[in-house]
Each structure stands twice: as structure tokens, then as C-alpha cells.
Specification:
Strand content of chain A: 25-35%
Strand order of the largest sheet of chain A: 3-6-2-1-9-11-12-10
Radius of gyration of chain A: 22 Å
CATH architecture of the largest domain in chain A: 3-Layer(aba) Sandwich
Oligomer: homodimer
Number of domains of chain A: 2
Largest sheet of chain A: 8 strands, mixed
Shape of chain A: globular
Structural class of chain A: alpha/beta
Largest interface: A-B, 37 and 37 residues
Distance between the termini of chain A: 42 Å
CATH superfamily of the largest domain in chain A: Acetylglutamate kinase-like
Helix content of chain A: 25-40%
CATH class of the largest domain in chain A: Alpha Beta
Number of helices of chain A: 13
Chain lengths: 405, 405
Amino acid sequence: MLIVQKFGGSSLANDKLIFNAAQKIINAYNNKNKVVVILSASGNMTDDLINHASKINFNYSKRELDMFLSTGETQSVALMAMALHKLGYPAVSLNCMQAGIFATNNYNNARIEKVEPERILNELDKNNIVIITGFQAINSYNDIVTLGRGGSDTSAVAIAVALNADVCEIYTDVDGIYTADPRIIPSAKKISQINYDQMLELSSLGAVVLHNRSVELAKKYNIKLVVRSSLNDNEGTLIGDVKKVEKTLVNGIAVDKNVAVISIVGLEDEPGMVFKLFSLLSRNKISVDLIIQSIGRQNTKDISFTLAREFLDETLNILERNNDFLRYDHLMSDETVAKLSIVGSGIASNPKIAMMMFEAIYNEGINIKMISTSEIKISILVNEDEVQRAAEAVHKNFIDIQNSK
Amino acid sequence: MLIVQKFGGSSLANDKLIFNAAQKIINAYNNKNKVVVILSASGNMTDDLINHASKINFNYSKRELDMFLSTGETQSVALMAMALHKLGYPAVSLNCMQAGIFATNNYNNARIEKVEPERILNELDKNNIVIITGFQAINSYNDIVTLGRGGSDTSAVAIAVALNADVCEIYTDVDGIYTADPRIIPSAKKISQINYDQMLELSSLGAVVLHNRSVELAKKYNIKLVVRSSLNDNEGTLIGDVKKVEKTLVNGIAVDKNVAVISIVGLEDEPGMVFKLFSLLSRNKISVDLIIQSIGRQNTKDISFTLAREFLDETLNILERNNDFLRYDHLMSDETVAKLSIVGSGIASNPKIAMMMFEAIYNEGINIKMISTSEIKISILVNEDEVQRAAEAVHKNFIDIQNSK
């Protein structure tokens, strides 16, 4: 078999953990597999580097930040190769230039376009364990770009696709995908199997276990993903073309605290206005999440949308610069909100579920600021400092009901 | 003018120093020069990384160490570009792959073979200040190699050659080249001009201001070097095709503490033995420094040579493995020695100089373990814990005499 393994920063935060991860790699190699390993930067290194860059220049260039951040994964892969050598195994580290990982031009948030795996295949032919930097790629200017937070998952899947790997194992500090983040909600249950679409909803909701794009890619090329812990031998969660999905009303509850909301008040109610607005944001590489449009007063409408907090200032700026063209009345924004979401294939067909969620929130006396629903999920915005209480209440309500069946 | 500037680790050890170096760069840029900057890793980062690697695997692979170390300079160049942007100047960082710096295959100690400066020239055409990682290059396997301690100087000169630069400025934490290391001997005097050969002798003696290979390259292509401080505007030392060298008996005194000595006792006295010995070491990429051959007993000879301490174990190993072939009696080694050297164009023609050196050492009651002389230098080995006292005594003797003239 050809196995791709990916280890996140929390699995590499110190030398002991590095040797721990090395043991997982060796186990796979000893079972006569070819093994390719993708690594993140260790521990909090990426955050530390961003802080350092901010101190030098608060408005750092995105290109230079990517150059700077790339050193995190480079250090990880070199240390891991040294650790594997120490344990008596052949290994070689490759950076994104050497591994042939190419991406779109946009710094800080590039998208992998292709992997040219010649060097990786050569090293595998020499029986090497191949250790590759995640999170980074080369763009058409031959510059280093990074793939956005969690991007190493996508590196792993893209490499698995290019190598036609049998499985892509994502090692992290939790045992798998849970019905909610067990660090927030201790009563959360592990899911043993889940299909790509459900996982996509879960990760788009801010369940930080997997990078969204990695699941999309895995779905497109039908790569089997396994999410499991680097600290034990528990089975983890299989994400794949799963036929027999467990029957639960709600597969997961997710909390995302990196949320800001912008409301555009009094937008002229004429055809194409929404298209103009979001194509403007898209041209500026601003990703929005939830979008709600409500009827405004006197032939106008109000549009609210959420986005990651780091894009708030830039987005407000863009909107202000384009007021001539968008002709809205005024802007409002709030970055003290958080998003609580539930996801499950039964949601659309069972109106009770939404009701049960709102009931749990109401019983806690928490105010809901925004609601968005789809076929298989419901997301609400609440105050950030109330979101954990809200999540626990919602989770308890669903687990209680499922257990009582 | 096209100016190449190089800043060493001590000039980049914290954010304040980075902005300080940025100001030197801006001064050159504002004077209508094109500016290319080569940076080392900041402060003690290289040493810290080597320590970390040793903790993971004491016998780390040289290839992986180079991959690991390369992150030091990469961080420097990204931060410097951010600092220059902060001050309002256009700048772009390039790593060795982007800058097109190619070297021989040997990890940890590669030699630059060529620079393909297309990208550098493109960025200069866009009026960018171009910031390039020193110390690192690409080898024929497309792997990262490093150039040995101090290698960033050579990066700077090699790039200056490729760009046909008008001058290559080496910024460091001292004001220029001194008659002795002013950190060791406070009475040392700054040299305002020196020619390449004298500088070569000085730097091969362990005067750590400039990487030896950088001076060789500068001499070969007649690149004007200026060594000066990043902390003040003092004039520094010009190293070039200097006609009017200052008339002093001794240009410099240097101390090198990274010295081990190996003696091969009882080598058969037959033709070709010395060639066999040193070609064996050369094939194994071991650089030796001083070599002394003395007459042994009963048709044998003894050979002693010095080398950097990190190569001692490996070299002893190689010699032991090849005893069948070399047929010596036994080996001796010592890594508690240090080298004290004096250099000056007057040495060969004035036998008094050696005498004065030995007299100063004798007056201090210090034992000389080995002596080697050339046209323009005298080197001696003494116990490491006596070398500073020896250096001060020798320096005082020469300065006193020169002042009394």
C-alpha cells in the first residue's frame, strides 16, 4: 500500500511528540507500505511567527509573510527526518519546491493546482520515507505561498491524489471526528464513519479538525481519509464514500469563534446588486461564510454576512471605497460574535430539529443574532461569551433525545 | 552604482538591529544605487538550530541539517523585507532557489559554483531592494546545501561577481579589520586599507571577520570589499587592489580557538606517502590547516596537522580505518590547543619579527607546541587557556615597537 500520513502542529509540539509521531510512521513502514508524510509547523510556531512579523510591520506584506511562515514546516520536516534516522529508518525531507507542489498566486490563501511528484516517486523508489512540508506551495512567480490555516490537510490530500495513495491518514490530538469538539463539550461522542458531504458541512462550520478544501479534494478523487490521534492507537474516524452512515439526527455540533459580521444597511433593491456586492468581495479574495438578506425599508434591502475576523477591516475598507457604486445607507459590524452549528442528514426532513436547537438556546436565555439553514445544517450567531454555554445546552438536548430513543 | 551589502547575524540579532541595518540599506538606495542585500541568520539562531538538531539525533544527517539551518536566513530575509516596507521602501526577499545560487554537492561545506541572476535582475529592474539568503545554495540534486561557517560573506561576493557590482560592503559588529581582534585585545588598531593577499592570510588565520573563500573570490574577480560596522558610520576597512599599503611590520594578530591537532607518528618514509595521506583526507572533505613534517626515528617520519575541532573524530576514524594502507605506528591528538598568528608583508624579509614574537611568548612563560611560517605569516599553537595572554603579549610587543619608530 501507499500511505500518506499528515501530522498537525499539536502532534509535533516538542521532541518527545516528534518521536511519538515517528513511531506511527515506522509502524506503517514496517508493514511493507510506502509512506509519505506531510507535516505542519510544530506547536504554536506559525502563531509565533505571525506575531513576530506583526511586531516588525503590522501591515506586513502577504508575500513576505508566506516566505517567513514557510520556515515552520521546513524545520518540522528536517527534524522528523533526523528522528527517523535516529530510530534506524531511511528518510528524506522535501520542501514544496522539491516536492513539486504548485498553487495559485494568491499569497496567504493559495489553492493547490497540481503536484508534480517525480522527486517524491524517486525517493520512494529508494525505499525512503518521504517527509514533505505541508501548508506551502510554489506559485507562478516561483514564490512561496501558503494555503490558509489548516492547509496542511489539503497538502496531504493533494499529494495522496497525485500518488494515487490507498489512504490518507490525518493525525491530530483528538481521536477522530466528534459530535462536537470534546475540548469544549466533554460529553461529545466519536463518529466512526461519515461521508464526504457531511464532513464538508462539519468542517465548513468551523469544526477545525479538517481543512475544508482537503475534504472537497478527497471527495472529488475518492481518497479515503482517516482522522485519528497521534497519541494512542484508537481507531479514529473514516471519511469516505460511506454507504452505511450511522443513524443519528445530528452528526455534529461545531463552534467557530473566529467570526465577524458585517451588515450593509439600505442597499438599493435593484436586480444584480447582490451579484455586484459579492463579486466585488470575491475579486478582492474575501471569503464570506453565512449570508442573509432581509427586506429593508422604502425599496431597499439589508444584507448581512459573516467572515473570518482577520478580513474584517479590509472588507469594511473595500465596502467604504465602493459606496458610490454600491449605494448603501450605512455599514454595521460586530466582531464579538461566534457561530454555533449543527449538522446532520436528517435536518431538512425533520423540522423538530431546528425547534429543539432554538429551544435549548432559549432555555439558556441566550439571544440569537442571526440564523442560516441549509439542507443538512443550521447555524446561528450568538455573543462570543455565550457560545460555549449555548453549545453545551444544544448538545445535551440532542444527546438526551438520541439516547432516549 | 550597484551595491551589494551583507549583514551578519550579530547585526540582525533583534528587531531594533534589523531596523538599524534597514537604515544602512535605505541610505544606499536613496543615493540612487541599486541595492542587493545578503543576510545571515539572526544572532545565535544557527547555533540554536544545531543544538536542537543534536538533541533529536546527535549524528544528524548533514543533508537534513542544511535543510534545517536554511530556515535561519529565510527568516532574516522575510523580516528585513517587512522592515523596509514599514519604512516605506520597496523590497523583495529571495531564497537560494529563487536567487539562482548553485553549489557543489557536499552538505555543510559546499562551494558556490555559479549564480544565475535573472530573478535578481528582474527585481532590480522593478526598483526593488533585493534581499537574499546568504550561507545557502542549491546542489545538483536540487537539495539545499550550506557553505560552512561565515559562508554568507562568500554568498555576497559571489552575487557581487554575478551582478558585476561596484562594491561589496560587509557589515558586522566591528568597525573594520583590526591588527588583532579588539574583543580580545583592546589596544588593537583599525587598518584602513589592506590588499587581498594580506586579508587572505588574516582570515585563514582565524580572524573571523571574513570567510576565506569570499576574499579569494573577490581577489579573482577584483571586487572591492569594504568591512564596516552596522552600528555607526565609521569608515571601515577597504580590501582591494590596494597600491599604497600602510607600512607596518605586522598587519594583524589573530587567534583561532577552534583548533585540534593530530600527529601521525612513525609513517614510513617512502615517496608519495604524504600525497596519499592528504588526498585521502581531501577525498573525505576534511580541510586541514597547518601541516608540519618532522624526521622520525628509523626511516620513518612524523606528520602533524591542525584542523577544525568538529572534524577531529571523523578524521581519526578515517586514519584508523586506513592504517593498512598508510602503515603508521600510532596517532596522537589534542583538542585543547589554540592558534595564534601574526601576518604582515614584512615578515619574510625581517627575521627579527619571528624572534620578537617568540620572545614575547617566552617572557609570558608559555610553551609553544607547534610553529608554522610562510612568506607573510607566523602561526604558533599554544594551550587554549594561555592563548589570550600570549596574544596580548605579542600585540603589545609589536605596537610598542611600531610606536617607538
